[in-house]
Structures are given as C-alpha cells and as structure tokens.
Amino acid sequence: MKTKKIIFACLLGIGLLGTACTNFDSINENPNDATENMYDFDKGNLGKALRNGGVFYDADVQQRIKALGMDVFAQYVGGNSTARVWTPNDGWLSLYWNNYYTDWFASLNIVIANAQKYEGRQNSLALGRIWRVYMQSQFTDFYGPAPFPKSPEDTNPDYESLDKQYEFFFKELDESVKLFDSSKDFLTVEDQIYYGNIAKWKRFANTLRLRLAIKMSEINPELCKTQAQAAYNADGGIMISGDDAALPGVSGVWGQQYVYYMYQVGWSDRQVMMKTMEKILTGIGGMAYAGTAAIHPEKVDPRGERYFDPSPETNTWAGLKAGIQTEPAGERNRVSAMSRTWIIPNDNRKTDLFLYSEACFLMAEAVERGFVTGAGSAKDWYEKGVKASFAKWSLSDSQAVDYLASNDKNLFGTSANYDDASGNGNTKLEKIITQKYISHYIDLSRESWNDKRRLNLPAMDIPEYRDPGAGTYPNDGNIKNPSNFISRMVYPQSEALNNKSKYEAGVAQLTGGDKTSSPIWWATKKSNYCTSN
Description:
Elements: H1 2-21, H2 24-28, H3 42-55, H4 59-73, H5 90-117, H6 122-143, E1 146-147, E2 159-160, H7 162-179, H8 198-214, H9 221-233, E3 245-247, H10 259-266, H11 275-281, H12 302-307, E4 308-309, E5 337-338, E6 351-354, H13 356-368, H14 378-392, H15 397-404, H16 428-440, H17 445-455, H18 493-498, H19 500-507
Antiparallel strand pairs: 1-2, 3-6, 4-5
Helix pairs in contact: 3-5, 3-6, 4-5, 5-6, 6-7, 6-8, 7-8, 8-9, 8-13, 13-14, 13-16, 14-15, 14-16, 16-17
C-alpha cells in the first residue's frame, strides 16, 4: 500500500511539472494588465487613421498637397510661384507618397488585420475598411493608378488599375456597412468625427459609395447607375441633415490647428479669392452685396460675403487671375482673401470632410441624369443642397428661397432658379455643379477638382500660364475644352528610380504618360458639359 502511494505521488508530481512547463506565460502575466484579448489597443490607432486620412496628418503635407495643390487646381486659392502654374515639386509629392504608404496606410492595414484576428471587433473592422476606401480613393484622385496594399504583408504591390480599385471599393463599402453591430464594442472619444455613432457611419459609407458611383458617370454609366441606386437603397440610407463629417482643429498644437488659420494668421500668407470664384459668385441669386467693401459688384451670392474679406489696400471685393507667371508686387493685397470672421475665426475650427449638401447635389445629379430612380425630383434635391449650404453659413431659409427663385445670372451665365433655362451656361447640370462648387469651399476642393475633370464643370478661367514641361496643354483659349485644365499630379521621382518596373507599368495605364495633363481613368472620356461663352 505504501508503494502505491509513492508511485501515485510521483505521477502527480510529474503531472504538475508538465502543467507548469506549459503555463510559464500565464504565470508570468500580470492579471491586472490588459492584453489584446481583453482590450482593443487599436482604437487609438484607428482614431489616428481618421485624422491622418481626413486632414493629411499635419500642416506639412496638407499645405503642400491640398493648399498648394488641390485648392489651386480647383481655383479656390492662388498658390505660390510654382504651384499656381502647375509645376510639380518632387519634395512635396514624395512627402505625401511616403507618409501615406509607410505610416497612415500601413497603420490602418494593421488595425484591419487585428480586427479580423480578435473577437468582438467587427465595428472597428467595418470602420477600418470604410476609411481605407476613403483614403485610397482620394489618393488615387491625385496620382491616378497606384499601389493598393490590402494587408500588412503586402509591402510592394503593383500599381493597380483604377477600374479594379473601384470594383474593390464598391464591394468593401457594401460589405462593411453590413458588419456593424450596435451590441458590440466601438470607438467613443477616439472617433472625433461621429464619436462612435454607428448610424452616422453607415450613412457616411453609403454616401461615399454614392460619391464614387457618380465618378463613374462618364467612363461606365451602367456601373454608375447600379452603384448609385445601391448606395441610395443601402441599409442605413445616405446622409441626412446634421450628418456633416468634420474633424476639429487642435488649438495651439502646430500642424493640428485649422490649417488655413495658421497659414493666413500665423504665417501672414493671404489665402486669396480667385477670379473664377469672383465670376461664379457675382450676380447669381440676385441679392445685393451687403459686405463692407467700397468697390464691389452690385449683386453677390451672400455666401461670398461670408467667404471673403475686402482687400486691405483698396477695400475691393475681387479675385486674382489664375496662373500669373510673374505676379506684380503687392498684388495679393489688392484682392480679397479668406474671411477672418467666417472662414478662419479661430485655430480650432472644424475641417469639413463630407457635407450633407454634397449628398444632396450628388442625388440631384443622379436623379437628373437617370442614375437613381424612386428618390423624388432632382429639383428638390438641388434646393435641399442650396438650403443646407445657406444654413451652414448662418443664412436664413427665407434668403435661400428668394435666392432659388432668382433668374439673375453669374458671369458664366448660370442662375440659381432650377427651372430657368435661358441663355448659355445655364443647364440643370451646370446649376447643380456650380452650387456644389460654391458649397465645397474651402475644405472640399478635391471634390470640386474631381467634377472639373469629370464634366468640365463648373466653368473656369484658363490659367494665364501652365508649365509646359509638366504637361501638354492647348493654347486655344477655349474654356469648353477640358484639355485646358490640369488632370493629375505626377509620381515622385523616387518611384522611377527605385521601383522602376512597377512605376513603368503604372505609367503605361495613363494616356499621355506621367504628365499633369494625362487624364486618370474615370476622366479619360474628357467630357464637356460647359455651355458658357
């Protein structure tokens, strides 16, 4: 009996020893410390991705790519000596490219991979996939065909064609909206856009799908119709009033402030009105100018008074000509600049990422052109968009009603009254895109540039000079010729040097080579809907 007890004790000891040998990790873990299984450490990383993708991380990239790029291409601001004539700056282009792939995008792919790995993170997975589409679509709007890594292991993928990327975008948005589960954990304070409101993120995703669908209008009308209708009918619907997506500036933190405040107030770099904007705002709506300028047009869209202060030197409400190669000394002090009261009142103003008014104008175009049915009238959507824009700038609904009843034309021939068809430059599509352009100032210049490339709308002045070494542009002076306007920005030189074979395969997808005049896929039809003289 004693022998049996000894044997049993030995076996028990061996068993315990075996257990101990396989549980060193659990013994060494502090039970009070959070682990990946217990807490989603990627919440902060996903919140960071929202800011990176929303405002280009900080002022370094934002100024060089948006303020001196997209804003200039949309003729919202004048740019510096090289930007205003569309001369590429390789340092700026490399800054965007490298930050995007090595930091912003790589971090987001890790968030998505971890959300797939750990249970209970489907809301983070859904938002991560939606935001990846948002970021990649705007990145390719700038360059054209580009690598699209879809996992952390995908370190140097080929330049993927835009038709394939858009196919993936639509699939991602469709699937991601269906992943959301209100019973599961989600972001709160890390999400500075909607603070974890799933209903609003669903509407954001569906409206993003609508935006991307409308971009297909010229290159693939059937795909446009299918995806636009699907976006409108999708679970959660599209954006409704109050769903504007925006990121707050961080007061006093360099690069995280509202950047235009920093440029104009902090750096004394006047963000001036352009002559195209002056022409678009002058006369339309039939409302008398009520600002403080001594020299001004008789009638001005009331948002124009909100957007621009008179010039300090001459007290004039006027714009700067686009593409002046050698700008006269002090010229910017003789034209209007961003309003210190309305546009840049402080350094923590929110940056607009997606506006309800845009959703309305997207629907107005979709219904007007037959891409969406069963959604009411195009006129109703158009007028909702104008009223939403007026409300954003503290203009009354009664002012919007009077404005929308006016047949007064701007200097390109466009009136606000949807039913007024008199004169050149006054089609329904021209009205929709003109109002969309006005409402997008200043933060959504990318979408205004997209419309210009897709439709040649709204009407714009041709810049006086365009860098002939960067692109091939006609000299016909014809604003109805889409080839007179910039189509894209070139790739960083490092890609041609260090990633030559893949770079060349990407360039081969462009009609015209790696030039600023080469259209990207969805704009290759070079459609013209401009009827202005």
